[in-house]
Amino acid sequence: MTSRSTAVPEGHDPDERGHFGPYGGRFMPEALIGAQDELAAEYEKAQRDPEFVAELDHLLREYAGRPSRLTEAKRFAEHAGGARILLKREDLNHTGSHKINNVLGQALLVRRMGKRRVIAETGAGQHGVATATACALLDLDCVIYMGKVDTERQALNVARMRLLGAEVRPVAHGSATLKDAINEALRDWVTNVDHTHYLLGTAAGGHPFPMMVRNLHKVIGEEARQQTLEMTGRLPDAVAACVGGGSNAIGIFHGFLDDPGVRLVGFEPGGHGLASGSHGATLSQGSPGTLHGARSYLLQDEDGQIAEAYSISAGLDYPGVGPEHSWLKDSGRAEYRVVDDDEAMKAFEVLSRTEGIIPAIESAHALAGAMRLGRELGPEGVVTVNLSGRGDKDMDTAAKYFGLVPETEQEDTR
Amino acid sequence: MSLHEVFTACSDRAALIGYLPAGYPTVEGSKDLLKAMISGASESPGCDIVEVGLPYSDPVIDGPTIQDATHQALQAGFRVRDLFDVVTSAAEAGGNPVVMTYWNPVHRYGPDAFARDLRAAGALGVITPDLIPDEADDWLEATGTHGLDRIFLVAPSSTEQRLALTAKASSGFVYATSVMGVTGARDSVGDAAAGLVARTRAHTDLPVGVGLGVRSAEQAAEVSAFADGVIVGSAFISRAEQQGTDGVAEFAADLGRGVRGVRAR
């Protein structure tokens, strides 16, 4: 295998207005265009500023704990056709998920732009916690919008955000999940844009967000590629990641985009199963449209009304997806498959029991996918999996799902 | 009538533009409310132009009043095909209807078919709050083909370059958002509004309408002093909710006196 540079060439960047083929762009109110132009310009400058690059690098190393480890999961592999399964341990980052990579980069940009206030949306709470963390570190005011349904199923993360000094605003409109939290954050942003930055948590939204968030997460793929080479002496046959908005997936995929022999496989939440209609399988079941600033695949009805997504995992419960994934799907470079709640929870349990690692339920979708890929590839296969977050936040959901705590006792301990 | 003719006919005053969502509270109910908005009351005419909103699942630039009304319309079973019927009803009542819609329903329907069917239904133009001209190639073509005016928005944050670009792409009128924020009645129209109208006029001869925050005849008169159109939305919904068609008719007449009064002084 060659060991050429893992730097992603300019060729994978969108055009200057943020288009990945027919996807991306800016489907935003005019009132926000000025702020996005400012952000794009500042990001361009920052990328070329050695001081910014050094400061971000320092924070990623000394604060977030990068590089994250690559762990071979040998006992788990027995459940995956005997293929070698390598876990990219984003769960070991500070705050417990990949989200910190993006948040630290954007928070440094906020400071450069001279803004004092940060708003963000969160689904599972991982991005909200990461944002609240960076705001505490850099002394920025922080407001987190979170669907009311999610504040209930992720109550622990709400407490974490508040402890970190953030204000958490539950959103009761619509489906009261991630999509509605983004709507409310956008309303705040359009009102307060002169002193507020919207720290978007996934590789979606209007340009420059999809490109910028992806670039801030590319470090996952760059490290994983080198670590996989060091550990196995070759590139993996496949890279597996879960896809909600798609930030962890685009981050790891980018390390391998120029390795045509490496399959890039994204796993979308199948919820109660595709036939039930209750799922979040945007790329597999959706059609192109515009939502939250970009053209991309969406779950929508025949009138173009956005559908309500569902997943047992709050972080994947989203009817849209980052535009670059739509482009990778259409171009055929990446494949997208579906893992339903039950299959994900099975993988959640298997990894916990075989490796002593409790994954986030989001990441369990990628692990279930890796089990399938491993069986398809057999013992000669190598699969690198993005273990994007840890599962501590999901214990309430898991306890209910597996019946680990008797109902009454569970109520008492709340 | 075209929008150009409507504004020309109002030459000595601002045009009054009233917004209500199609399908609110029901499809038939919205037709009645729009008729009341057009007719006015007590021999005082109502709105010169009616802005018919297309209810959408994710109305990101709307405040709670319009969010709730459009949500109610969708809950009551509103479908995009009902829009055309509501527009035709408003046109037949002697109104000059334009449609306000988020972009995804148009994208889904097909921009060309949407422009064609709306024009056939009697709409004069379309306001697209989350479509900027930079992304509107297919919309420019569709509206051009079918003779529908396209109304883009400008904001206090728009640079000179963007004002020029947006005004150039617009026809009928340019929609100036008076404040940075979402729709909803406010105690005062932002100070930024007059400045934005003046800045926009430097780039175009098109009429400039001011929306966001207008809720009273006094405010309408105030805006009428510096703009070519006064756009009232959330306040109409509140009237409809509290007083039904009669309240809407009286409110339209009241606002109409407001826009007329200013030049009659």
From TrEMBL, chain A:
GO cellular component terms given for this protein: cytoplasm
Q: Region Disordered: what ranges? A: 1-23
List all Basic and acidic residues biased stretches: 10-19
Chemical reaction(s) catalysed: (1S,2R)-1-C-(indol-3-yl)glycerol 3-phosphate + L-serine = D-glyceraldehyde 3-phosphate + L-tryptophan + H2O
Q: In which pathway does it act?
A: Amino-acid biosynthesis; L-tryptophan biosynthesis; L-tryptophan from chorismate: step 5/5
Any GO MF annotation of the entry? tryptophan synthase activity
User: Modified residue N6-(pyridoxal phosphate)lysine is at which positions?
Assistant: 99
Q: What is the lineage of its organism?
A: Bacteria, Bacillati, Actinomycetota, Actinomycetes, Pseudonocardiales
In its UniProt entry, what is this protein called?
A: Tryptophan synthase beta chain
Describe the family membership recorded for this protein in Swiss-Prot or TrEMBL: Belongs to the TrpB family.
The first-level EC class reads lyase
The source's superkingdom equals Bacteria
Protein purpose:
The beta subunit is responsible for the synthesis of L-tryptophan from indole and L-serine.
Which keywords has UniProt assigned to this entry?
Answer: Amino-acid biosynthesis, Aromatic amino acid biosynthesis, Lyase, Pyridoxal phosphate, Tryptophan biosynthesis
Q: What is the protein's quaternary organization?
A: Tetramer of two alpha and two beta chains.
* Pfam name, any one: PALP
The encoding gene is trpB
E.C. number, please?
4.2.1.20
Q: Is Transit peptide among this UniProt entry's keywords?
A: no
Q: The Tryptophan synthase beta chain-like PALP domain covers which part of the protein?
A: 64-389
**InterPro entries recorded:** Trp_synth_b_CS, Trp_synth_beta, Trp_synth_beta/beta-like, TrpB-like_PALP, TrpB-like_PALP_sf
From TrEMBL, chain B:
Which NCBIfam families does the annotation name?
Answer: trpA
What organism does the UniProt record list as the source?
A: Halosaccharopolyspora lacisalsi
Name of the top EC class for this enzyme:
lyase
Q: What is the role of the protein in this entry?
A: The alpha subunit is responsible for the aldol cleavage of indoleglycerol phosphate to indole and glyceraldehyde 3-phosphate.
HAMAP family linked: Trp_synth_alpha (MF_00131)
The portions of this protein that span the membrane are: none
Q: Name one GO molecular function term.
A: tryptophan synthase activity
Identification of the protein by name = Tryptophan synthase alpha chain
Under the heading Gene3D superfamilies, the entry gives: Aldolase class I (3.20.20.70)
